[in-house]
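Encode chain A's predicted structure.
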Amino acid sequence: MNDNNPQDFQQEQQQSVDYKVLLFKFYRYWYFFAITVFIALIIAFIFNKYTSPVYEVKTSILIKDKSENKLSAQSIMGLGGLNNMQNLQNEIGVLSSYTLTYRTIAKIGFEISYFSEENFISKEIYKDSPFTVEIDTVYPQPVNMRFNISIASKDKYRLEAKEEDIKFYNFSKKDKVPGRKERVAVDETFEFGKWVQGNNFRFRLLLTPMFNQEKDLTRTFFFQINDYESLVTQYKGFSIEPINKEASIVEIKLKGGNVNKLADFLDALEGNTLPRTWNVRILLQGVLLSSLTTSSKVSATPFILPKRLLKFSVRIKKS
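Encoded structure for chain A:
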């Protein structure tokens, strides 16, 4: 005996036919789907081409307990782990303090930021700049504004800038000039090595060994003078946390537009004086583009922690 209801069978058959009809309706408009995919690919290409990359630098630090060779009361009572955790938290507090970040920024020399501009994208070039800016610290300088540079020859360049309500910073006193906001405007040609002096600034530009006359004469550059407080706000955004509860290892992460500048800041912050090996990984949208290992030696700073182990990894993110 057949228990199937003829009405249910007919309904299922009708439902199957409806799916086919629906599929054919979509097929009639296949070109709309093709156009949509094509437009999405174009948007993705433009996004990747005209968006500045953001780098993330990570470093792991192994902190050695200064009192590990001493027999403390906590160790006798079996509370040595608690003492180690307190030491680790103390070191995290020192590394993340405003004072240490400020002293590091003031020492490392980030007062001037250098940029190149191409295809509407501004890229920080740091030590690859074909020129450097030397400021006269006797004079208060306009900060956080853009000075455009067009190199005319190995002897001359054009300086352009025009902004309103610009604040000033006294680098000799390391403090802002209270209540001073002025209009800064300049559009003139100057010689490299000669002091440029206006009513509200005094500095000079010097060519570096990175200058390439064939390439740099057609490029657009600009620089910015930074006050220490703004730099501290920018670089104090790093995260620092223990890798796990058992190990005395912390990981520091910092994001920015130039890998070498980020690494130099972390070197100065940690006071590392040993040769280091970088493991650099460059990722774009989660796909590994390249991987390399390099070695370098960094200078000492007053902020020395006990023995530490460094490992850098870098990845690109699209902001």
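Residues 68-81, 272-319 have pLDDT under 50 and may be disordered.
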